[in-house]
Every structure is written in C-alpha cells, then in structure tokens.
Description:
Elements: H1 3-12, H2 27-56, H3 62-87, H4 94-114, H5 117-137, H6 139-144
Amino acid sequence: MTSQQKQSPKRAAGAPAVPEPDGPRPTRLSAAAALTGIEGLALAALGTYMLINGLVGAPDSPQQAEMGGATILALAVLPLVAARGLWLRRRWSRGPSLITQIVALPVAWTLVKGGGLLIAAGAALAVAALVVLVLLVNPTATEALGIGPREAP
C-alpha cells in the first residue's frame, strides 16, 4: 500500500492533508494579503464601473464595455480569493497571489506608457506588485504558509 492510499481514509474522514500552521500570522503575510486584497477590490471596482457604464452610460461600444466589465469582474476573483487564503494561511494561496503580481507588472508598464494620471496608477501598481512578490518569497511567509524545503525521497 502506498503512502497516498494510507492517507486516503484520513482525508475521507475530514482530516487535513497538511497540518495547519500554528502561531501568530507574520506581519509580512498580513501585508501581502492586504495588498493582494486591495488589488482585487480595485479590479472589482473597475469592472463594476465598466459594466454599469456599458449598461446605462454612453460608451463608444456598449457591448465592448459590458464584456470588458464582466471580464474584469471575473479576473478580480483570483486576487480576492488569494488574499483570503493568505489571510487564513492556506498554502495554496501563494501561487495565485504570485501569478496575480507577475501579471500586474506588464499592466503597470502599459499604464505608465499611457501618460497623464495613468503614470501614477501604473507606478502604484508596480510598487504594490513588487512589494507583494518580495513579501511572498520571504522565508517567514513561506514558513507561515507551511511551505518548506522538499524532503529527499
């Protein structure tokens, strides 16, 4: 019998596959969760604005505004779920948050190239993404999430 087969009855009984981390949540992990959540809320606000503008406003293309708003609302789910997972110290949440930050960097660059107020928005997004990336690769955060070095077989 393999180790996975031995663990299956435990999982079926509701026991967690990985023990929950104990102790207080590190400040770095809390900050990463908060910044990721703020990014998700900003995306949700932008998506809602675009959707409402497409429905009751006068955009050049209402269908494009509605579809763009719905798409951005759907994309906002990833950082919001990741932020909640980080806050609750779930090890799976680090990956979605890292992906969100990596995707945010080219978006920030595009905003900076847009000029005007978009420069400030792009700079803020880039700084937030880089800060979260640094916070999430920090050993304190990885240990708090229960992510450690792989054991040799």
